[in-house]
Queue: 2 jobs
Job 1
Amino acid sequence: MSTIEAAVADRCLRMYRTMVTIRLFEERVNDLYTRALMPGLAHLYLGEEAVAVGVCEALRRDDYITSTHRGHGHCLAKGAAPDRMFAELLGKEAGYCKGKGGSMHIADPDTGNLGANAIVGGSAGIATGAAFSAKKLGSGQVAVCFFGEGALGQGVLYEVMNMASIWKLPVIYVCENNMYNEYTHFSETTAGDPLVRAAGFGVAAESVDGQDARAVYSAMAKLVDRARRGDGPAFLWANTYRFAGHHVGDISREYYRAKQEEQHWKAERDPIKVLRDWLTEQDVASAVVLDKMQVEVHEEIERAVQFATSAPYPDASRVTEDVYA
Amino acid sequence: MSTIEAAVADRCLRMYRTMVTIRLFEERVNDLYTRALMPGLAHLYLGEEAVAVGVCEALRRDDYITSTHRGHGHCLAKGAAPDRMFAELLGKEAGYCKGKGGSMHIADPDTGNLGANAIVGGSAGIATGAAFSAKKLGSGQVAVCFFGEGALGQGVLYEVMNMASIWKLPVIYVCENNMYNEYTHFSETTAGDPLVRAAGFGVAAESVDGQDARAVYSAMAKLVDRARRGDGPAFLWANTYRFAGHHVGDISREYYRAKQEEQHWKAERDPIKVLRDWLTEQDVASAVVLDKMQVEVHEEIERAVQFATSAPYPDASRVTEDVYA
Amino acid sequence: MLETAVATRELTLGEAVREALAEEMRRDPRVFILGEDVAEAGTAFKVLSGLVKEFGPERVLDTPISEAGFTGIGVGAAMTGLRPVVDIMFGDFAGLIMDQMANQAAKVHYMSGGRWRVPMVLRTTLGATRRSAAQHSQSLHAWFCHIPGLKVVMPSTPYDAKGLLKSAIRDENPVVFYEDKMMYKLKGPVPEEDYTIPLGVADVKRVGEDITIVATSSMVQVALGAAKLLEEYDVSAEVVDPRTLWPLDEQTLIESAKKTSRVIVVDEGYERYGAAAELATVIQAGAFYDLEAPVKRMCAMHVPIPFSPPLEDATVPTETSVFEAALALCGRSA
Amino acid sequence: MLETAVATRELTLGEAVREALAEEMRRDPRVFILGEDVAEAGTAFKVLSGLVKEFGPERVLDTPISEAGFTGIGVGAAMTGLRPVVDIMFGDFAGLIMDQMANQAAKVHYMSGGRWRVPMVLRTTLGATRRSAAQHSQSLHAWFCHIPGLKVVMPSTPYDAKGLLKSAIRDENPVVFYEDKMMYKLKGPVPEEDYTIPLGVADVKRVGEDITIVATSSMVQVALGAAKLLEEYDVSAEVVDPRTLWPLDEQTLIESAKKTSRVIVVDEGYERYGAAAELATVIQAGAFYDLEAPVKRMCAMHVPIPFSPPLEDATVPTETSVFEAALALCGRSA
Ligand SMILES: Cc1ncc(C[n+]2csc(CCOP(=O)(O)OP(=O)(O)O)c2C)c(N)n1
Ligand SMILES: Cc1ncc(C[n+]2csc(CCOP(=O)(O)OP(=O)(O)O)c2C)c(N)n1
Ligand SMILES: [Mg+2]
Ligand SMILES: [Mg+2]
């Protein structure tokens, strides 16, 4: 019998299920790509699930997020449905953006998702502006800006952090440090210390183990609290790792990172394994229960793929719609 | 008989003379403007002379500088001649840029002046690129990027600081904090601490009294040394004050800063008075000698104005020259 | 110009802009202003003077010198329930915000399948001859006109400025609104009563028979001046002001061209690959069989804008140069 | 196309670009490459693979994701004795560097009265139909073409790419060099021996009598394909490739138009206020009295580029659509 408080147990099981959902979703995306069933490319979130899930667990449904080119995990964690996600990835009318956005541009007002962005750092202004609205309208919402450590190279990030700090906006900049800007190690592109940078702009900065969903959740919960209280913006540095390539086509990676490094992270630092071990050790759930959950998720994903593959493409005439509101 | 080492005495007298040159130059610019003899506007450097002079005293003639919309002082301190400066301000063919640049774009390869820039922060990349060349070509040159504290709002500044730090480039970012971005106090536009910002990008950061030319020189000499040795970029925060308006047309300033504030700085913190007092107290030079120097400079400025006013405008046909090299 | 008939007072273009903003801010609490020195200073051009007194610093916000950043904040605020009016002091700074405008503001609605909107106005300036040199004198509107998802407004009179700005603020899309720095002091009739001018409707500023001068923003007054000079030579010039370059009222341009059979397009942007090329192409395509001569462009010379007065003056079309070109196009000589 | 007659081997456009860079870097130690993932990765498109091995990381530098910053560094390096070749992965990122390119690189020479120079090349990409959606599929060359002080190069074959890139690197001015992502794998003859192609000289890719198709970059192959289809209808199409949009070889375009009397301009940029409008205007002005019909433009549809294949495919000109338009323009039907 577990000593873990029920609310905590529920939260951790919920996070586990969402992480598994993202994992299976992304594996299926890769499978669709390799079988030439998906147009274009996709940037998989495999290995980074705990960041999106831990962060979004601390958010309300009406809180805002902005996402990136590696955004499937953020969207799912914020509440997007796999079926409409797959439909968007396949360019179908039933997708979240009627097929007009695709993998890098999933947006969904119903879950506060302001949209994934294919411009690195491109959503920093949008997220900060959403926080500006939340404060001005007194809605109590916060905005979360997800970005990779590569976005630390984009000056606009510092421009908006400065304004968020001056105006005490409820925005949290979540930097997913998976250590690579495409094929270049971040140490070759990043001088100094990102946490000191944030502090230099008066933004509260914290670092967290991005493979531990529970740790991400607690760190984030504190920062969200601060922001809702009106204490201003924060910067969360989450150390993580992408298990797969920069995108689905990035197969042979030895020239920029060692196989052993990948193996180490997959074997020792898999965020799903980390949470699963905790859940079982604490008797929150048995392996049987968790396996059953995984099977359910698997079925949900399969149904979603079914839905998406059989869904129709938009009629070509739709191309001129939605240019202007 | 002064106890001050001759070399030091010479340097301080040289700095004094240059500061007086800038002071009289700018007063004459204002006079030409008010008498409607100068086209357009000009941003005067009055009150900030010690920064440009102290910084450039630590530079070689072949070291590079980039300047700003408030650039007359930088150009003169780096060795530009008042006559061709005035000619440029009046749009004459004899000006440093054949009249094509004007007050905000004075450039002069002979003195390593890469050019003043009318885009706030616009020269950060250029200065850093010049430092890149110096390092790659092993010329031993350093590059100095002058900018006002308002340029801290431009993201590109952080982008290039990061690269200068990664590549250990010999560039020194000199931030002239005169406390105002046009008509807005910098505390309303700047969160956190600029020195911490620089440190966050791995850039050595120092602060100095921008009204004390000797202090600016010593601080700068250290940083230039570091840079020449290959120890990388630095950020110098110089506290100063502009005695006049944002530009020559900015006459009634009470709505954004108090008359007493201006009076205090002019009376207590005039960089020329500060150095003059030291020179006389230390018996480096008598009031008589310094006054004589001032008269010489005054005559030089008058000759320069004469030259410029009587110089011809470029022929209109020149308009299509220099578009492409 | 029927509308102006009912006008009862004169305002400068600057005053008309300020009045439009004040009225819209009173009407709609979601409207706010974001930019450098917009509050106490009322902008470098003093166009917004007084607004902060009425609406307070929460609705007229001074920003750091971070054009990309606060334009992006405007985009996000517009998506989430507000109606930002972003102030970009000089149109020359467009280069700093093109990603925010072209990749974000312009595309959010389309990329989201129509689910998010960006009801935002970006006010900025154009125009040379102020002796401000190459980085403060450009008219770069062609960049924005090229991007689907944006609208571009170019008023040439106080009346149009007020009516078009109110429409821009009420529009559900990102709208770039250009003000000619030299025209801020230009006076013109502006009625007391509330009115708007729809985006996408050109205005014939002067009716004529022999030649059509299509002019934008700062060049409309130049065109009208040239038309006066042409009168003395019994050349009757029609002056057509598109007022908005996107949406573009092609019909009015084409009909005027068909009527007069001769056309000059005058725009203060750089001539090459500029807005005038689009207007010329639209007219050529629509009135081809009625044209007596190719459409002529008169724009900023294809050089960076120089500081020196005699040089700068040579770079922009003037009443005289347009008058002479028009006369020549009509096969006449002065 | 006389030149290609002497060609002795085939290279892809990507290989031709790499060879041009390698040869220029061997010839001139001042030449270096700056950009994201350009070294070990050889760029996202693998175009630069191997260069870092030969020239080392001091001459092939990986940068942070700071387009404005490293473009600016390129400008400064070019002014002070080096010859940077700056790599901007996707042309869509132009919005981030327009201030560095338009206000700095383009104006330094003029503003300094000719005393500083910016011998720099900015390589970037254009082109859609890769299912990359609205922010990775644009062809924004019109923005650069509009700015005096910049040159803009748009090769359409491996042969042209190599010869033009070498000229661009040897040029004393800032040159924007566009590569079509879809064309990297296109093979074509490229001679072993050293050669350059001057900037500002158009190339008639196919001689014809009945209609002129002026096409740029990615659209040249489309135009040639359409020309083939037209043959079957006994319509002889001339395909003219300007090769550089600035400087622009107006004469070759105008002469072809005068000869055939019918012209279509095909460009992958957005149609409105785009590069095609300039080409159309130049042709109209120069060949007006010889044209049987208005110059027709075929460009990217004026919408953000959608992800969904059936939608994206509808946005760009194709062999078939150009063929049909050409046939119609010649008063014939398929
Ligand atoms: C402004 C901009 N520059 C370059 C790119 C190309 N690009 C796409 S993803 C990427 C690397 C991003 O690295 P990071 O921010 O760490 O995110 P990660 O892919 O690691 O999740 C780059 C350079 C882009 N999309 N936008
Ligand atoms: C990118 C950009 N934005 C705005 C301006 C307009 N502007 C000119 S000077 C100035 C204030 C600059 O303040 P600061 O950098 O502190 O320099 P100072 O004038 O105080 O010397 C502004 C906003 C500009 N020239 N460039
Ligand atoms: Mg990363
Ligand atoms: Mg200042």
Job 2
Amino acid sequence: MATMIQAIRMALAYGEQHLGVTDVYGEDVGPPLGGVFTGSMGLKTAWNSPLDERGIIGFAIGLAMGGQKPVAEIQFVDYIYNTIDLLKIAGNTTWATAGDWCVPMVVMTPVGSGIRGSIYHSHSFDAMMTHIPGWKIVMPSTPLDAYGLMLAAIKDPNPVMFMKPKALLRVRPPAEDMLIPGEPADEKVLKDMIDAPLGDRSAWKPRWPKLEDYTVEIGKGRIRREGSQLTIVSYGRTLPLCLQAANELAGEGIDAEVIDLRSLWPYDWDMISASVRKTHKVLFVNEDTEVTNFGEHLLRRAIEEFFYELEAAPKLLAGAHLPGIGLADALEMASVPQLASITAAIRELAAEVP
Amino acid sequence: MATMIQAIRMALAYGEQHLGVTDVYGEDVGPPLGGVFTGSMGLKTAWNSPLDERGIIGFAIGLAMGGQKPVAEIQFVDYIYNTIDLLKIAGNTTWATAGDWCVPMVVMTPVGSGIRGSIYHSHSFDAMMTHIPGWKIVMPSTPLDAYGLMLAAIKDPNPVMFMKPKALLRVRPPAEDMLIPGEPADEKVLKDMIDAPLGDRSAWKPRWPKLEDYTVEIGKGRIRREGSQLTIVSYGRTLPLCLQAANELAGEGIDAEVIDLRSLWPYDWDMISASVRKTHKVLFVNEDTEVTNFGEHLLRRAIEEFFYELEAAPKLLAGAHLPGIGLADALEMASVPQLASITAAIRELAAEVP
Amino acid sequence: MSKPHLVGSKSSFTLAPELLVKMHDLMVRTRSLEERLIKMYKQNDGFFWIGGPGEEAFNIPLGLLLNKGQGPKFDYFHGHYRSMGVLLTLGAEPIDALRQMKNTATDPFSAGRNFCGHASIKKWNVAPISSPIEVQYSIAPGTALGNKRAGDGLTVVTGGDAGTAEGDFATCLVWSSRPGNELPILIVVTNNKWGISTASDTQHGDRVIADRGKAFGIKTMVINGNDPQESYLKIKEAMDYIRKEKKPILMEARVSRLYGHSSASGANFVTNEEDPLKTFEERLEAAGILSKEQMKKIWEQYNEQMLADAQKVRNEPQPAPESIWDHVYCGQKGKPGRYV
Amino acid sequence: MSKPHLVGSKSSFTLAPELLVKMHDLMVRTRSLEERLIKMYKQNDGFFWIGGPGEEAFNIPLGLLLNKGQGPKFDYFHGHYRSMGVLLTLGAEPIDALRQMKNTATDPFSAGRNFCGHASIKKWNVAPISSPIEVQYSIAPGTALGNKRAGDGLTVVTGGDAGTAEGDFATCLVWSSRPGNELPILIVVTNNKWGISTASDTQHGDRVIADRGKAFGIKTMVINGNDPQESYLKIKEAMDYIRKEKKPILMEARVSRLYGHSSASGANFVTNEEDPLKTFEERLEAAGILSKEQMKKIWEQYNEQMLADAQKVRNEPQPAPESIWDHVYCGQKGKPGRYV
Ligand SMILES: Cc1ncc(C[n+]2csc(CCOP(=O)(O)OP(=O)(O)O)c2C)c(N)n1
Ligand SMILES: Cc1ncc(C[n+]2csc(CCOP(=O)(O)OP(=O)(O)O)c2C)c(N)n1
Ligand SMILES: [Mg+2]
Ligand SMILES: [Mg+2]
């Protein structure tokens, strides 16, 4: 019963053992800390880098070109914005060389709000990242999906951006999820095996469970709740909130289908299409700022393909278009979708009649 | 009859003389070159900077804080992508300090395709830039608007991004535009006054015309063609193409209204609304890559506000979602909207019946 | 606050006793504030703590030597999240730091938006402190050019050792030393030998960070930032040079990090680093400038004040949700339309 | 090509005559290619020219000394838009450079997508040359770590002087010199004292760019990159050290820029800079290694070959519009759906 951060760590351990991962690195990624969220604790290839995000991304490109298999971390996505040119290079190298070079690298980075992170530990990155061609982009909302998407990311011969929703890193898996293949069912046993002790950990070594291969194909969404009246498409932090809202609204007779997109690029249009063709109403939810937002892309595509089939205007619920998320509770709550605003948006969409 | 690049240069000269501009700087902005597109030739405050875009943007923030009024240039917007964090800071400083500091700076940079610039001299920046709150963002399509928007940008107490559509820098003004207040009507006379001679120019000094104040308010669009059947919203390089297409299609009985947005943020929603409420059909055209594109924002807003009034699905015509624009003619043509594809899109929209 | 009595005796000091006493007072005030902030964090009166305990012996002299005022005639200060000592010395009120810790509506630095220690005081040319490491080094040369044009003001920029790995540090060196266009800027690195959990000697081939200035012809200094007298004298020497020559100096100050990186690493007092305040107090006592008793009293006064202030802040209002729309633009308040 | 006759006489050279003759041949070949590219540009057989005339005396020795092959056992080369001499020396065909100039479908480097001089040859570890200045310096340390793990390979990265103002240059120094994790990398700056129209002495306080390595404990060298023999010997010395010690070297090579920055500045021959090829030919003649006649013949042969190649390229197909969809992803061709 791993948390998402444990699942990621186990995926990286599996990657080191079986998939040729050579370097898991970034600021405070190696010993003694093993990542500010413990995501790389105890990994044998984990190491600390200089405090230089441009160096981290550039080095990953170089490692990928140099026959290595890197998983590079940007400590918080809030600090990735001086590397956009390098992310673009990682994404255009194959195209610019007409296929000569591939760049098999993974970048992982915590994203989003939910920890009172204030202006610089709350950023979302889905909008800018989906505007950078040549990458694959994933964001899990359950530990099992995190494990399966990380293995898929490592196996992929292209650059893959693995976004870790900060707010969900320590949350337990949903009831319907099976165990990660190989993990012990008892969370205390697992903790004992793979979490470093408090205090001095210089002599500590993890005992990894006998993990197995499990891949979530990049580009495949997941229907987390079936429903007939409207479709909700989300991912990351807002996904469990959408699910909760949908479940609660079932009592009011609102039957919503909830799709966890999981992969932002490529994304599972087949799944969205099938659902919208069934429900004729769609709500896109994410927490990035709402202007030039990836949900606007999905909405545009819905308009392109289903305009005449829709029974209500498709909607986007996203973050306020503001320079930051404020520290105080009330400010964070007012800036990004929460259970209440999601519930209200679903209700409104359900009630809309042409 | 100034070209756009001459208009920009005159606006900067006016800015130096009357609006307190202290520094026009960037790579090759000062003598001897005066900018790779001659945009800063002969300006008294123009100087060459180190080859360091992060330095250029950072320095501009510092100058603005230090009581100066900078107009900083990024030589090509293709090279701005390592400064996104600094652009974000310029845009969030007022908000983060609850109003304590303002950051009055202008960044100008050539954008877009049209000069066979290949992968790194063809980028559009409207999507990423409109995703950065706290800025004002403008992009003219005529010399007069360039002059008026540059003066507005200089007068604004906030950071303003002035995007120069590369393809239009040397194009003459449209017939309906008046002269820039103060400029001589004869383009040869003007050239003689303000363009540096070929060869050694070390002794050359410009003779600026007696320029006058003329401001295009940021946030106001411009109807370049009135029409009743559909609305086209565009800006920059694609604007004249939209206009040409609309004029040509008038012969086929298609009567399109063409809005030059001019300001991307804030944008003139009143103008778009009034037009769409009249035509009930709308096409957004820009040349940035089409996924998570600013046109998708406008389209989403149109859906939000007019879904039930629209007589056709609103459309976006934008650049192919690809890592770059290829050098060969055929590649550039296939990658971004051209007259033919714009014409086709208008025709299709005009023909669409619910 | 009652003036402590000055005992004029032999001492290891060359600075005037009045100045030493003043520095001590400000150092205690700063430390007391930081310790109160940590307590607030631990008592759930704030989400996150980061600050500068261990850097007082450098920050207080720096604050004393800045020429305070607004606009390019005066000095600019581009600090970072360990700079509260500089700001208190300039005249900032501790209670305002507590307000930011508690993210109240009354927080004058950010109205409850930013982390503690992320201040902004335009009226004294204190540039906004923001979280991203090192960006201040790309920004600071700009105010230095303003200074150069306006008179004898200068710009000071500070940041940590690990952060010098960012390109912005190099940018600062490049832009400050352009031949013929050198800038009046004091480029400071406060080297505590750590970046969060990462020891600097595992990452930095540049064992003496200040040496990076040499290739640029920038005058460099390495000082013991744990010694307030040395800091005062060296910063003064540097500032005199900068004001006169209109040229940069790169100064590396070796300092301590006394409560770990931040609340994320527990914010507990570490015992294996020099406490510059303790050292200073021992020297002050040995020199007969302040007695244990006197110093104890100063501590008590400040600790009491901070506690009282913290209690006051607890009752101050939190920001209203709709306040998020204010100040997107210069002078703007409220939400005029669909968007600001 | 007929072997020139070697005259064994007294000379100012210490390198073997065969090697000198070979270098001369490759230098002429490279220059001849560049001049053909410029002609193509001027005849509208290409949209843009940029290249390396003036850097042959450095680039050819560098190409000769690289250990060519694929994968981390072999050397990696991260060049820039003036590096064609290195690539020709490795074995690239001039006609392929002409193809890229003419953006034909047959351009093996980018299939008509990228500017001339922006090559990529994975089978020889030649990293893609891209337009953004200096990014190669952030990338190159990564391949150097691959080298270090695999054996005795090393990584070479090159770029211009003005570009060292970008933070990436500092990044390269930092990442190459981490204590205990030093990397086998030859960091080269080809200093022509210009960045487009901007003279380096107006921007660079670091008058000797190589000095920037010193603070990092990186061994530095400043060489006359206009002298092919000095270049050869110094690059060899540097590479021997790097292969043995697994540590970086920062080398500044002073070179010429013989046709201005690019076609944007006219691409005309400048007369106020040393032409290293001319100097070399004078020395070769003086040393009796090659006669004027012999050299003239070499020039003629290459000039003819380039012209013939250019004519051939003129008739090759342009890329098809739908080819834009190929190679967004590794191994992908065509457009499977609404998007690739
Ligand atoms: C650009 C950026 N990257 C990462 C972080 C996260 N972070 C905050 S403080 C810190 C370490 C800073 O070390 P140093 O520069 O030595 O300053 P110190 O905290 O030791 O005073 C890191 C990595 C950040 N705030 N900004
Ligand atoms: C990041 C970036 N900024 C700007 C440019 C435009 N540009 C191309 S070459 C050049 C000058 C480069 O000078 P230097 O590094 O000395 O190399 P040189 O051309 O002199 O060999 C500039 C500014 C660019 N290609 N990339
Ligand atoms: Mg430190
Ligand atoms: Mg140069």
